[in-house]
Amino acid sequence: MYSKFSFRSFRRVLGRVIVTRPDKLCKVRVIRMQLDGKLLRYFNKREDVWVLDRELQCKEGDIVLYQPIKNQKEHVRVPYAPWGTSREIAKILYKVGETFDPVTGRRCFGTKYADEDTINPNVNYEDDRRGYYQDDTSYLMRNQAKKVIEDYKKKDNTEKKGTPV
């Protein structure tokens, strides 16, 4: 029940760059849905494809569109793939580090926020100097917790002063 996808049926394919090499090649991972004949359900199937990057502009983690090479005389041999490659990068859709989370507005690298490791409780993220809005709920929760603790300490100190022992 296994059916191999033919790349000729697709003009442009979306994938993520997982390996880049200095000889104008990069490996792109494509995730496709494949039907399991016994369960009659679709499951993710990963395919890794060598793609020609003419300007060496791709980095690992970029989301790219690739297409067949327009001039078929330019067939590039790849040492790791016995059949070579006949595909090239058409467009870089999302570069690593230049994507923003639409909900919080924070810059992210893949699935992690760029400032996740360096969140400083003393920084006001609403008027950030970097030019984009950051709304950090953990920062707001920390400030609320600090206020509650300070109020509790003030209340505790006033109770101790008012009652002689």
From TrEMBL:
UniProt keyword Zinc, yes or no: no
GO molecular function, one term: structural constituent of ribosome
Example GO BP: mitochondrial translation
InterPro entries tied to this protein: NA-bd_OB-fold, Ribosomal_uS17m_metazoa
GO cellular component terms, A-Z: mitochondrial small ribosomal subunit
This protein's UniProt keywords: Ribonucleoprotein, Ribosomal protein
Name of the featured protein: 28S ribosomal protein S17, mitochondrial
Native species: Lingula anatina
